Amino acid sequence: MNVLIVSYGSIGKRHARILSENFKNLRIGIFRNSSCKDLEDFECFNKIEDAILFNPKLVIICSPASFHKEMVLKFSPLNADFLIEKPLSDSIKNAKEILSSISQNSSKYHVGYNLRFSESLLAFRNLIREKVAGEIYSISCSVGQNLEDWRDAVDYRYSVSAKRNLGGGVLRELSHEIDYLGWLFGGFTWVLADVRKTSYLDVDVEDMANVIFAINSEEYGEINGTLNLDFFRRDSKRLCEVVGERGTLLWDGVLNQVNFFCKDEKSWRVLYSEKTDRDHTYLEQFKSIFEQKFDNLCNIDDAIKTLEVIEAVEDSNMKGVKVHIS
User: Fold this and answer.
1) Helices (H), the chain
2) What gap in Å lies between CA 175 and CA 314, rounded to an integer?
3) Could you give the C-alpha distances from 94 to 50, 225, 273, 301, 304, in angstroms and in order?
4) Rounded to a whole number, what is the distance in angstroms from the first to the last CA of the chain?
5) Rounded CA separation 308/88 (Å)
6) What tens digit of pLDDT does each residue of 2-51 get?
7) Which of the listed residues 81, 112, 143 is the one where a domain comes to its end?
8) Is the peptide bond prior to 77 cis by the omega test (within 30 degrees of 0)?
9) Which residues, 6+ apart, have CB-to-CB distance to 29 below 8 Å?
């Protein structure tokens, strides 16, 4: 089986390494614009025509989000499945053009929201479904990591995260949170947001977003929540907290734990804890694609919903009002 990785930045390199280490029957090709001299371990192509002749059965789009539409359109004539790195695109307009271009295509398209394969987040999801916290009253979600530390392999100022024209900024780069909130609880109904560039970081994008939102849950109706994203905190943080009638359920994505504060016991206890390396969610995502198990994979429709929330947040910030999401 041939797999083509489009672009060879940090996430492209991670995918190539994970695939080569764990799936020995694959031929891995790299399509890039720059020199192939440093790619002795993989086949490398600088021309679209040569990459198409490689005849991949899986195409992994790892280019900056602003180039996703172009790359999908170029490779969509192939009889191949696709994994498009998050976010699906840099805008709803481009995302819908992607959807239109593939509407008659029999290939399967997935978007790389790999946190859906975190064992601790899956445990958190199951505990919510089992109503461990009872009726849900509110949700609080936050994620932050310093961009200098996160992008330590390169000068962060030139990374995708730091560049507006490449689809950077906290809303798109940290959109995992928006994706999994919809996946866990239901569709967003409105947002009220404050988005800004506020720190010392030398970037031309927002480095902080604070969002009040409501989600329409099938089980509990409309639930209010808060979402906080940033690029500047020195301690890495990834938390989702559910406050319910029976207590508080807390997912810690850094420690890979789920904790519960029970109203009767009046203390915290660990309900789930795991130790996995950073490759785990990516590997499980690939296994699901190869085994055609789609339950936890993010599809195009869900990825468009995430972009709709992002653009509603931007609209709310610009207008200073609550923005409803249809």
Assistant:
1) 10-22, 48-53, 68-75, 92-102, 119-129, 147-150, 170-173, 176-185, 280-290, 300-319
2) 13
3) 26, 29, 40, 13, 10
4) 41
5) 11
6) 999 999 999 999 999 999 999 999 999 999 988 888 787 899 999 999 99
7) 112
8) no
9) 2, 3, 4, 5, 42, 43, 44, 45, 51, 54, 56
d(CA 254, CA 241): 14
**pTM more than 0.90:** yes
* 291 inside domain: no
Contact by Cβ (8 Å): 96, 69? no
Rounded CA-CA distance 72/309 in Å is 23
Q: Which two tokens stand for residue 194?
A: 């404050």
Both 137 and 254 in one domain: the answer is yes
Range of the domain at 178: 115-275+297-324
Same domain for 160 and 33? no
The arithmetic mean of pLDDT across residues 247-256, rounded, is: 97
* CA gap 218, 129 in Å, rounded: 11
Instruction: Give the tokens for residue 7.
Output: 């672009």
- CA dist 173 and 231 (Å) reads 10
